[in-house]
Automatic annotation (TrEMBL), chain A:
Organism this protein belongs to: Acrocarpospora macrocephala
The protein's name in its UniProt record: Sugar ABC transporter permease
Signal sequence annotation: none
Membrane topology: Multi-pass membrane protein
UniProt KW keywords: Cell membrane, Membrane, Transmembrane, Transmembrane helix, Transport
InterPro entries on file: BP-dep_ABC_trans_perm, MetI-like, MetI-like_sf
Highest taxon of source: Bacteria
SUPFAM superfamilies hit by this protein: MetI-like
The keyword Cell membrane is annotated on this UniProt entry: yes
Pfam families tied to this protein: BPD_transp_1
From TrEMBL, chain B:
Domain of life according to the entry: Bacteria
Protein species of origin: Acrocarpospora macrocephala
CDD domains noted in UniProt: ABC_MalK_N
Keywords annotated in UniProt: ATP-binding, Cell membrane, Membrane, Nucleotide-binding, Translocase, Transport
UniProt-recorded name of the protein: ABC transporter ATP-binding protein
InterPro entries cross-referenced by the UniProt entry: AAA+_ATPase, ABC_transporter-like_ATP-bd, ABC_transporter-like_CS, ABC_transpr_MalK-like, ABC_transpr_MalK/UgpC-like, Mo/tungstate-bd_C_term_dom, NA-bd_OB-fold, OB_MalK-like
GO MF, one example: ABC-type transporter activity
Matching NCBIfam families: PRK11650.1 (NF008653)
Any single GO CC term annotated in Swiss-Prot or TrEMBL for this entry: ATP-binding cassette (ABC) transporter complex, substrate-binding subunit-containing
BP-aspect Gene Ontology terms: carbohydrate transport
Domain ABC transporter intervals: 4-235
Length: 270, 359
């Protein structure tokens, strides 16, 4: 019985990982052997990697990705923390409406917003700028941060704030010195999830940019061209895909436990 | 050190329920006052209103003669000990105790001196660098006390500080809280649902039920002269026996027989409730006088005393249980008839509708 489950496990993992392995393999293949269909490269090369790092557009895309992702995550965390704390602790008119709306935004099909956003951003001059991507990213990262963080805050006993208040803390001091230190694990998790969301986005990145001024890495990759019009840039695309996957893998490996804890606590308590 | 005055203080919640109704209470400087009552009686709400954690709907709260209704908790100079202790998990014992002083922007050397002094007082010195997670329940409780004491506040508020401890430790901490309060001489308001804690700790006890103060007095006063049936039943363990009685010229007719009561029947309504404390009964083989006879249902031998439970069923109207607290030398046995002495003069008589004490 155990053996059979083990076998199924291996099968599932292989099924999930083969495309990744394929991409990694492609990224090391020499252009002449790229279509040979073997999983192990017959002719190893690092040219694909050196090539993409010599490509200014890709470097620029990485910078855009990191910058836009960090700023959007930071802003979403600041507002998300405050909103989540209010939701976890206060009763105020419109609280249910707020929770409902943030859920609605999280579920909203993003594709339906692309055209209106395109028009709005062109009119406002935000098209093809950092803020033009940061704003929609914040919008979609906020429900995520509000939901996971309020689950974390709800787990912190209210008596701690009351005790801090009695000890002479202002409401902000109680929040900053007592609640935030206890919520740090949850905040780290949430920030990583928000960053990954921004980092992975392709739809907005491709639709709301037109040059390397604001185009993020995933979108940049789709504009890769071969060295001549008859050459396929498969190798470079594979190498770039591996490069932008690495930060995510590192994040997840480092914070695996916390992310799982964060996700499940949100699932059960949210 | 401070005098706390509650002047017609009430609390109504937005949904219309009244949690506390018109409390008038003066807590003298250095006094140890207990708020006691069943859960939901408004005792914690009252404490929170004194603390400033809960707004006062109407009435006035004065500390040292100054109205403090509108003041934030930090401007009232009052410390509070919570039932869950509410220690800050990410801080060491030292940091926990220093927290109120740090917030008050006291110079660091002074903070260190005060923390050390308080830790000494509570035997916490060896634990100063531990985190709350690595402390036992009793130690956490002491840290919570330490955090309150270290500030040298005008008053202590304690919200069931012992109810998370096991029975033995609770008795131990009870005496040490009592000793500490006497030594520091700080006005203390203490909330509990446990009448033993109330009786043993308080200079005065405030008994509350459904948001209304039933009686205020010294423990002995409440025991001897309960204002109504609720207070009589709440104070004392086991609780007072209540027997419905019909008033007749020859005495009070109850399930345990007719209780003689002299010329009093003329002043009483037709039906009353008779209250007799279990400890006022005694085995007639030990003491003689007015008595009743019944079959002993259950005997609980406690060592220093014996509790005998009688069940009476007479007709359809009166059924009831009577508990007698007897001398351990009494030979009562389960299932046997026993004749029990009582003093008719020590009875309480309550109005069956209002519950007021008519004696």
């Amino acid at each position: 019985m155990k053996l059979r489950w083990g076998f199924i496990d291996v099968l599932v993992v292989l099924y999930a990982l083969i495309p990744v392995l394929w991409i990694v393999s492609l990224s090391f293949k020499d252009p002449s052997t790229i279509t040979d269909g073997s999983l192990l490269p017959t002719k190893w090369t690092l040219n694909n990697y050196t090539g993409i790092f010599r490509n200014d557009d890709f470097i620029r895309g990485l910078i855009n990705s990191i910058g836009i992702g960090l700023i959007a995550t930071f802003v979403a965390m600041v507002f998300g923390t405050m909103a989540a704390y209010a939701i976890a602790r206060l009763t105020f008119p419109g609280k249910r409406l707020l929770i409902g709306f943030s859920l609605l935004i999280a579920m909203f099909p993003q594709i339906s917003l692309v055209t209106p956003l395109f028009q709005i951003e062109r009119t406002l001059g935000l098209f093809n700028t950092w803020p033009g991507l940061i704003l929609p990213y914040i919008t979609f990262a906020l429900p995520l941060t509000i939901y996971t963080l309020s689950a974390f805050f709800k787990e912190i006993p209210t008596e701690l704030e009351r005790a801090a208040t009695m000890d002479g803390a202002t409401p902000f001091q109680a929040f900053w010195k007592v609640i935030v230190p206890l919520a740090v694990p949850g905040m780290v998790t949430t920030a990583i999830l928000a960053f990954i969301f921004c980092w992975n986005d392709f739809l907005f990145a491709i639709s709301l940019t037109s040059s390397s001024a604001a185009r993020t890495a995933p979108a940049t990759i789709s504009f890769f061209t071969g060295s001549s019009q008859f050459e396929d840039p498969t190798g470079s695309i594979a190498a770039a895909a591996v490069v932008i996957t690495i930060p995510i893998v590192i994040f997840v490996l480092f914070f695996q436990r916390r992310i799982v804890a964060g996700l499940t606590s949100g699932a059960v308590k949210g | 050190m401070a005098e706390i005055v509650l002047d017609g203080v009430s609390k109504r919640f937005p949904d219309g329920t009244t949690a506390v109704h018109d409390i008038n209470l003066t807590i003298a400087d250095r006094e140890f006052v207990i708020l006691v009552g069943p859960s939901g009686c408004g005792k914690s709400t009252t404490l929170n209103m004194i603390a400033g954690l809960e707004e006062i709907t109407s009435g006035e709260l004065r500390i040292d003669g100054e109205r403090v209704n509108e003041r934030a908790p930090r401007d009232r100079d009052i410390a509070m000990v919570f039932q869950s202790y509410a220690l800050y998990p990410h801080m060491t014992v030292r940091e926990n105790m220093a927290f109120p002083l740090t917030l008050a922007k006291m110079p660091k050397p002074e903070i260190a001196a005060k923390v050390h002094h308080t830790a000494d007082l509570l035997d916490l010195t060896p634990l100063l660098d531990r985190k709350p997670a690595n402390l036992s329940g009793g130690q956490r409780q002491r840290v919570a006390m330490g955090r309150a004491i270290v500030r040298d506040p005008k008053a202590f508020l304690m919200d069931e500080p012992l109810s998370n401890l096991d029975a033995k430790l609770r008795v131990q901490m009870r005496t040490s809280i009592s000793r500490l309060q006497k030594r520091l001489g700080t006005t203390t308001v203490y909330v509990t649902h446990d009448q033993t804690e109330a009786m043993t700790l308080g200079d005065r006890i405030v008994i509350m039920q459904s948001g209304v103060v039933q009686q205020v007095g010294t423990p002995q006063d409440l025991y001897d002269h309960p204002a109504n049936q609720f207070v009589a039943g709440f104070i004392g363990s086991p609780s007072m026996n209540f027997l419905p009685a019909e008033v007749h010229p020859d005495g009070l007719h109850t399930i345990i027989g007719t209780i003689p009561c002299g010329s009093r029947p003329r002043l009483l309504p037709r039906e009353v409730i008779v209250g007799i404390r279990p400890e006022l009964f005694q085995d007639t083989r030990i003491r003689h006088g007015a008595s009743f006879t019944g079959t002993v249902d259950i005997v609980e031998s406690m060592g220093a005393e014996k509790l005998a439970y009688f069940t009476f069923e007479s007709g359809a109207t009166f059924t009831g249980e009577v508990v007698a607290r007897l001398d351990p030398k009494s030979p009562v046995r389960e299932g046997e008839l026993a004749t029990i002495w009582y003093d008719p003069a020590a009875l309480h008589i309550f109005d069956p509708t209002s519950g007021a004490n008519l004696t």
